[in-house]
Give the backbone structure.
Amino acid sequence: MKSKEFTVMVLWLFICEFCIRQGLRPRLDKAENTNFARLHQSTTIESFKACYKREFLRTPNELYNIENGANMHQTRLRLGLSHLRAHLFQYNLIDNPTCQFCNLEPETTSHYILRCPTYNNVRVRFLIGLTTLLDQDYMASLNDDKIVDLFLHGDPLLNHNTNVDILSMAQVFIVDSKRFSLRILQ
Ligand SMILES: [Zn+2]
């Protein structure tokens, strides 16, 4: 959480706590099922604190801090906010999502990771890397969606070191593909 957001949240906490102590309930977001609405529904200080911890305090995923040359681009792919044409098209930044390198289909995350012939060489290296890390049964269980998920997030069922290796190899793929500008990392 950024310091400004943290300050706002602490201020919010004090206001809500004051209101609850005074028997008042602040007028918050009326929409149901928002974290603010759930906070609003707290009737005691204890339930308010528990709700605050549950809804606003998150434990960062250590695996998302791995830096092997392309963490920023890996994060953008996770969020669907990369320079892939399907992502740009989704936000009306371009008028055609088709991959400009192969013209075969929209340049989605799965197209980039699994199918675009432009990246066959880096893809083969990534898949060979997976076979060295994972056992045969696990490899046999992989489908396209699972490979994309591994590339972006790892797998909580695997141990930490294996996940670090997988996400690092995915960043090598991103760097070697030269699909995204890496200038900001230099
Ligand atoms: Zn393509």
